Amino acid sequence: MKLFVIAWLSAFALMAQAPAVSSTMGAVTKIDAESKALTLKTDAGAEVMVMLQPAVSFRRVAPGETDLRNAATIALSDITLGDRVLARGRAENSMVAATLIVVMSQGDIAKKQAADQADWEKRGVTGRVTNVTADSITVSSVVIAPGPNALVRRYAPDSVKFSEARASKLSEIRTGDQVRARGEKSADGTKMSAEEIVSGSFRTLAGVVLSIDAAVGQLQVRDLETKKPVTVKINMDSSMRKLAPPAAQAIAVRVHPELAAALKGKAAPAADVQQLVDRSPAVTLADLKNGDAIVVSSTVGASADKVTAITLVAGVEPILTKPGTREMSLGSWDLGGGFAQ
Predict the structure, then answer these.
(1) Which residue ranges does the chain devote to CATH 2.40.50.320?
(2) Which of 150-154, 196-200, 329-333 has the lowest mean pLDDT?
(3) 3-104: which CATH architecture?
(4) Residue 220 burial by CB count (10 A; 0-12/13-18/19+): exposed, middle or buried?
(5) SS3 198
(6) Distance CA 43, CA 129 (A)
(7) Burial class (CB in 10 A: 0-12, 13-18, 19+), 250
(8) What CATH number should be reported for the domain whose range is 202-320?
(9) CA 78, CA 243: separation in Å to the nearest integer?
(10) Which residues does residue 139 pair with via DSSP β-bridges, in sequence order?
C-alpha cells in the first residue's frame, strides 16, 4: 500500500473505536445510486457492501491528508469507480451501514503516485549498503544521514507490504542490506540528508518458469543457481514488469561488460537499472508462459523454496545468458528489493 494511504488510514483509525462501529477501506467497484449503496474491494480481495444511511456524510481528502477538517464536502455523484473509500459505520458480516464516507479519488492518487515516483527518481538513491557508522550509511557512494523527523522503516521477513514494514532505526541497518533513501543531496552529490529511509534484507532469484497457477497467484520456477524448484507467490503488492529489448540490453551491458566491446559502441546509453525496471510495462501472470526466464526479488524469509515476490521481471533472457553461450545465470545482477511502496 502506498505510504500516503497508510498515513490516511492510520489517522482515521480512531473512528473505529466506538462500540459496534468499524472502518473499512477499499476501491469502489460498483455504485448503485438508486439503492444508495457502494461495493468495495478491500486490499485483501474481499468484497464489502456499503449501505449509505440517510444521514451519511461524504468527504473528499487529498492523498497524504490526515485531517478531516481539510476535507471537502461532496455528494455520491462525485464518487467514481476506482476511487479509494473509507466507510465508517456499523458492520455485520460483509456489509457496512455507513454514516461517513471518506474518498480519495483515483485521479488524485495517480497524480500523487506520479509525483512521488518523479521525486524518488530525482532525489532518491537505491543500492546495497557498503558502510555503516553510528550516524550514517553509505549507499552507491553516497553517505546518507537521517534528517530531522526522518521516516525510517524496515521490511518484515516474508512480507512485501510496506504497510507491514515496521518503524526502524539506523542502527538496525547492516552492511549488505538493500536501502532506498530520498532527501536533499549535497552540491557534489556525495552526501544526503534523508527524509525517508527504507531498508530490508532481500534475495534475488533467477529462474525459468515451470508452471503457472493464476487462480492461486503463484508459479513454480527452476532456480538457475541451485537447479531446484521454488514456489513464487504473487499478491496485490507484488510488482510485475517486462523489460523491452532495449532496456534488457542496457542492463545486460552492465552485468556483462564484455558485451560493450562486442557491440562496438552500439549499446543503449547507461541508465539507472531501477529506473529501467520501474518504467517497464506492467504484466500479469496471464502474460507469462512456461519456459520464460524471470528474475524475482523478495525479502529473506524462513523457507528457501518459497518466496513472495516484491518485484518480478520478465524479458530478462539477454541479461541472464552468458555471452557466447546458451547458459543462463543470475551472475552479478542484483535486483535488490524493488521497494514497492
Answers:
(1) 3-104, 202-320
(2) 329-333
(3) Beta Barrel (2.40)
(4) middle
(5) strand
(6) 32
(7) buried
(8) 2.40.50.320
(9) 38
(10) 129, 142
Q: Tens digit of pLDDT for each residue in 264-295?
A: 555 444 456 777 888 889 899 999 999 999 99
**Rounded to 5 degrees, what angle do the CA atoms 333, 158, 194 make?**
65
User: Scanning the structure block, which residue is given the C-alpha cell 527452476?
Assistant: 222
Report how far residue 32's alpha carbon sits from residue 39's, in angstroms, rounded to the nearest whole number. 8
**280 neighbors 272 (Cβ within 8 angstroms):** no
SS3 content of the chain, % helix, strand, coil (to 5): 20, 40, 35
The CA distance from 42 to 26, in Å, is 4
Contact 278, 193 (CB under 8 A): no
Percent of the chain with pLDDT over 90: 47
Residue type, 164: E
pTM, two decimals, is 0.56
For residue range 13-32, what is the model confidence (pLDDT) as tens digits? 444 444 468 889 899 999 99
